[in-house]
Specification:
By secondary structure, this protein is an alpha+beta fold. It is about 45% helix and about 15% strand. It contains 17 helices and 16 strands. Strands 6, 8, 9, 10, 12 and 13 form a 6-stranded antiparallel sheet that branches. Strands 3, 4, 5 and 11 form a 4-stranded antiparallel sheet that branches. Helix 12 runs antiparallel to helix 16, helix 13 runs parallel beside helix 16 and helix 14 packs antiparallel against helix 15. The relative contact order is 0.10. The model has no long low-confidence stretch (mean pLDDT about 85).
Length: about 475
């Protein structure tokens, strides 16, 4: 694009902004808004999350008509000719909006690109928001097949912080405020932004995409299905995480493993609530808009832990151990980790007890043949693995004795046992006593998992307690 071309576009956009037409759509024909009002809402909606302004922007379209419209469309056709076929242009935004989310693949029936009128509307919006000079500059970049960027956003429960924390290059944790006035821009990309955000965090991953536009023409036969065309079109674009630490980055695996590492590091059940993709609204290639599909998980987190950089550093260390491709320890620990996390999100104490019992059995009895001594072996192995002094080991065995008594009662009778006061008297355990045992067991389970990760292997139990089974 020549300097003369850039000046011509600037003049065309100046004339266009002087003749803007703001029209409602989607069944809102009775509404009206002035260009100045629309501009205020656009500025507010694109600068930060604003529910009301975002609604206005999404339900009104900005356009122009007459000779000026024809001139700008012709200018676009000439300058972006390599990317245009039959007045359509294929933007990567459609593939971002329907990109795999949280390991779930979504596809759109749209495979032949957007009409140039949609591109023109986006160009006009950027002119309003950023100014004509910025819009002309962005257009010039589009002629050079530049790369763009977008974000994968994960709403996490179980942790919160006072400030944004950098995890890896291009990957960060962003706290959510208690007010809708201060939510980040990417919150507007969530199809249901009204959902609860109190004491939650965003895990944001920055991606680059190249190129941002492509000619939508594909040789086709009558037998081609739109799903096949979609896959062929998608192959034209390259998505890469903006981080050199990861090779063959798999987002779904990262989400799962890093949340486990965060949970262990923070002693909190860190879970995925919702995942979505977000393109900044003022990106010129964002023709399709932020209509991304989401992958809701629906966690039931029991609480939220306030974290700082120290916990994140520990989570990164544990993440590398959990993701070590040369070790099978992490795979063997999955049942224990999952059940430990589940014990923190389950509401009923009976469920927590069963989850913890399964977690400990997977940790300490996975390689033990069937035996009538399983519960004794578990108590013994755990005591010797976690404690050094005889008194501490005896105390630990008492905790496991009670845990297994409760577990047996829950499994066989459907409820917790009563506490013996004397030979003839019993009473129900108090909520404080129940909570205390569950917390002790959860902390011991967490410690056991981390110890195995640190060692890089499960202990040889016979060697560990050789000659000491008379405890």
């Amino acid at each position: 694009m020549t300097e003369e071309g850039k000046q011509e576009l600037t003049q065309l956009l100046q004339e266009a902004l002087a003749n803007l037409e703001i029209r409602p759509y989607g069944g809102f024909g009775g509404l009206s808004i002035t260009p100045d009002e629309y501009k205020r809402h656009l500025q507010r909606a694109w600068s930060s999350y604003s529910k009301n302004s975002l609604w206005i922007v999404q339900h009104f379209t900005v356009d122009i008509s007459g000779e000026i419209r024809s001139k700008i469309l012709e200018f676009i056709k000439v300058e972006l000719d390599p990317f245009i076929y039959e007045d359509k242009i294929l933007s990567t935004s459609i593939f971002v909006s329907n990109r795999d989310v949280g390991g779930i693949a979504y596809k759109s029936s749209q495979t032949d690109g957007d009409h140039l009128s949609s591109f023109l509307q986006q160009l006009l919006k950027i002119s309003i928001f950023r100014g004509i000079e910025r819009a002309a500059s962005d257009f010039e970049k589009c002629t050079k097949e530049i790369e763009g960027s977008f974000q994968s956003v994960v709403l996490l429960t179980g942790i919160t912080s006072e400030a944004e924390i950098q995890v890896f290059d291009g990957i960060r944790l962003i706290p959510l405020s208690n007010s809708t006035e201060d939510l980040p821009r990417c919150w507007g990309g969530l199809p249901n932004p009204n959902q609860d955000f109190f004491r939650k965090m965003l895990l944001v991953i920055d991606y680059s995409i190249y190129p941002i536009f492509h000619n939508p023409f594909l040789p086709a036969t009558t037998e081609d299905k739109w799903e096949d065309k979609w896959d062929m079109q998608k192959e034209r674009f390259r998505f890469e995480v903006k981080n050199r630490e990861f090779s063959n980055f798999n987002e779904a695996d990262f989400h799962e493993t890093f949340c486990q590492a965060l949970s262990l590091a923070c002693n909190s059940a860190v879970q995925i609530d919702t995942v979505w993709n977000y393109i900044a609204e003022d990106e010129l290639f964002n023709i399709s808009g932020n209509r991304s599909s989401t992958s809701p998980k629906g966690p039931s987190s029991a609480g939220s832990m306030k974290i700082e950089k120290a916990e994140i550093d520990e989570a990164k260390r544990l993440y590398k151990k959990l993701g070590n491709p040369n070790s099978n320890v992490a795979e063997k620990l999955q049942i224990s980790i999952d059940r430990w996390i589940k014990s923190k999100t389950s509401k009923a104490p009976e469920d927590k007890i069963i989850d913890l019992a399964i977690a400990f059995e997977s940790l300490y009895l996975s390689n033990i043949p069937e035996s009538t001594e399983l519960s004794f072996r578990l108590r013994l192995y755990a005591a010797w693995y976690l404690k050094k002094k005889t008194k501490d080991r005896k105390d630990l065995m008492k905790i496991f004795n009670r845990l297994y008594d409760w577990r047996s009662a829950v499994v066989h009778n459907g409820k917790l046992p009563e506490k013996k006061i004397s030979r003839t008297k019993k009473r129900p355990y108090t909520q404080e006593e129940i909570s205390e045992l569950i917390t002790q067991a959860q902390d011991l389970c967490q410690e056991s998992i981390i110890n195995v990760l640190e060692d890089g292997e499960f202990p040889d139990w016979n060697s560990l307690i050789l000659g000491e089974e008379s405890l």
